[in-house]
């Protein structure tokens, strides 16, 4: 069986696939790691196990995951020996990793070297790999990089207008993130539209606690909103999004903040949390905004405005737009955010049917109004499946697996 690990900054998602990837045998989410209200959900078919307990770190999260897989009533494996390959998500591969790769000692050293590029994420990704190496000795591990999909972004879009030596000698450039999600969703969108991916120009809106907007033309990333680090672009749960870097100099020189304090401010105290003063959870922020909280309303307004502005820019960069695609937690679940983003994009050929916008969970991924030039879709992301396909590809020479099923367009029934 193939175990897929998606170890985020405050979460651990996992899926266990049968060898030909036709079935998710079990899956789970361990959420709010290191926060108040942490909990675990574990699914085997229609059976659901929920546990609410303190989960102070990712090591304890892995304990919970393994206990769930071996659960006396919902057991799906007899022991660790049932796991034959493990795939991992990694956020940042720098210039070192341009494609998915098998883990060995050298790769682990290089992963640690890349950790400074994504301090909120890469250490968690590395911790997940190290836990698996310890718990499942001898099992091959594959790491799949969010940055790899964006290697096709052209130089004029990924080189900053800084002294060129910073790029050529130090690798300071736009890298982009959530590439595994964008790669999966772009192909799934083409499948839904029954059109070749090579014929489509689309903007993928990966909207969650982390946010990426990606311009995908003919299946290749041509621009992306997050850059060198993971806090620029669109405001996120706790990350700032774009702002004038002169503010950093001001905070250090005039306000006496240390570089470490400014870094924590940008990554952990900004975005929805920073503006609203309430929460990094869009659901809570929107509830408070609807109840009349002005700062929460402003946080939502900023979020929506920055998305709309970026969609327009990417449509221009691609000489037109065929599809606008929403995915990830907010993109898949918030009809209000989808409606507000699409309002005013009629100039691009985007207009949605509000009735369909309320029905996506009933099997209506296309929420476009009739006769619109641009298709507007809601596509559940499945980073784990994309990682599973890459893992299969890299380990199949050494392990006898049957041929995988490679559909990229799961039904909503499969995702609920």
Automatic annotation (TrEMBL):
Its cofactor is Mg(2+); Mn(2+). GO terms for cellular component: cytoplasm. Mg(2+). Can also accept Mn(2+). It is found in: Cytoplasm. It catalyses: acetate + ATP = acetyl phosphate + ADP. InterPro entries: Ac/propionate_kinase (IPR004372), Aliphatic_acid_kin_short-chain (IPR000890), Aliphatic_acid_kinase_CS (IPR023865), ATPase_NBD (IPR043129). One of its GO terms (molecular function) is ATP binding. One of its GO terms (biological process) is acetate metabolic process. CDD domains: ASKHA_NBD_AcK_PK. Pathway: Metabolic intermediate biosynthesis; acetyl-CoA biosynthesis; acetyl-CoA from acetate: step 1/2. Gene3D superfamilies: 3.30.420.40. ATP binds at residues 13, 206-210, 281-283, 329-333. The keyword Chloroplast does not apply. The keyword Oxidoreductase does not apply. Mg(2+) binds at residues 6, 383. The record marks 178, 239 as: Transition state stabilizer. PANTHER family: ACETATE KINASE, ACETATE KINASE-RELATED. Belongs to the acetokinase family. NCBIfam families: ackA. Homodimer. This is Acetate kinase. It comes from Breoghania corrubedonensis.
